[in-house]
Design a protein that fits this description.
Elements lengths: L1 H7 L3 H8 L4 E5 L1 E2 L2 E2 L3 H8 L4 E5 L4 H10 L3 E2 L4 H12 L3
Parallel strand pairs: 1-4, 4-5
Antiparallel strand pairs: 2-3
Helix pairs in contact: 1-2, 4-5
Length: about 90
Amino acid sequence: MLAFLALELGWDRLAGRILRGCDALQIPERAAGITLVSPPRLAKWKRHVREIHVWTVNEPSEMRRLWQLGVDGIVTDRADLALQVRSSLERRP
């Protein structure tokens, strides 16, 4: 949460120090009533880590929406559905 606050306040150096050595973040889409995953926030996160994974997503429509927003991975109890959704997105022109 400290990294999130640093990013929101525009303290990129502090966020970079907090996230140093992190290759990926696994976060919920929302926490404490705050949306952590949105296009502007993904861009902020991605300045400091290579991948953003969102947990726990079990609905195909939510999986599709999140991947289309630009998340890199989804933590789910329904890997079968996630594979179907991801495959359908990759087939699109």
